Amino acid sequence: MEDTIEKTMINVDVVIVGAGPGGMTAALYASRANLKTIILEKGLPGGEVNNTADVENYPGFSKIAGPELAHKFFESAMEFGAQHSMETVVGIELHDQVKHVITSKNIYVAPVVIIATGSQHRKLDIPGENLLSGKGVSYCAVCDGFFFRNRHLVVVGGGDSAVEEGIYLTQFADKVTIVHRRDSLRAQQILQERAFKNDKIDFIWDTTVEEVIGDQSVEGVFLRNGKTGERYTYPCEGVFIYIGLVPNSSLVSHLDITDEEGWIITNEKMETRIPGIFAVGDVRQTHLRQIATSVGDGSHAGHMAYQYIQTLAD
Q1: Residues with catalytic function
Q2: Which of 15, 116, 120, 246 could form a disulfide with 101 if both were Cys (CB 3.0 to 4.6 A apart)?
Q3: In angstroms, rounded to a whole number, what is the distance separating the alpha carbons of residues 294 and 93?
Q4: Cβ atoms of residues 159 and 244 within 8 Å
Q5: pLDDT in tens, 13-70
Q6: Who's near 58: CB < 8 A, 6+ residues apart?
């Protein structure tokens, strides 16, 4: 851990680590309860919402651009006096009933910490993936799709993200091939129907990607059919990978509040096993990771933060 001697100690009631929908909703509820609240986020507020072209399943909006929705969340989060600071959190320490949240700049001292660090895209961990990352390998169609006009692209995966982003890429690419290790998609039915109707999308079933091929940029992928064992090279000019998520929970790995895969374990009140530490959103052990569920998590955590601080005052 970094040397903390020169850092400023700042006392607050609630520190929220992460500014995705869950973290920002928690800030709204905590600050509305008159708690001194700060959100710490190393990037732009909104998290993965900023990387979503259109959100179609959030109540109140038939369709809204991800960055626009993120901005609306941020405006609401700040409405009742919560603060926001772009800082990288490097450690969390327990000191009796208070916690020290250590950043690259300061030490925030608070009785309540809400972990809202989200998750990141899982990698295939195959040859060529890291070497060609940013050179044709991507995990964000909204971020990089524009650079693949008139190209042939491969999308790896069969869930909501893979199919949705594959559809999105068709507005730029000549052709999108979705490679899935099973013989059917796991995505929502409405997304499947859209993909099957799209003339620019085709599918390779029962197949895994074993290598990304290319020197300075992607030139193809090496595929293996899981049923026949056939291996072959499939030409393409870009690979977009959507095979699941990995929790951003290394910050709390020493606190023994995660499961074996790193997801933070909470109860229905978003409480971890450590009093005063809560978790919300995609970093939490849960069956559904959506904007709406993160917002619900955040409202619980923000309210329970107030309840917990009241018990300390009794």
Answers
A1: 140, 143-144
A2: 15
A3: 25
A4: yes
A5: 999 999 999 999 999 999 999 999 999 999 899 988 988 878 888 999 989 999 999 9
A6: 64, 69, 291, 292
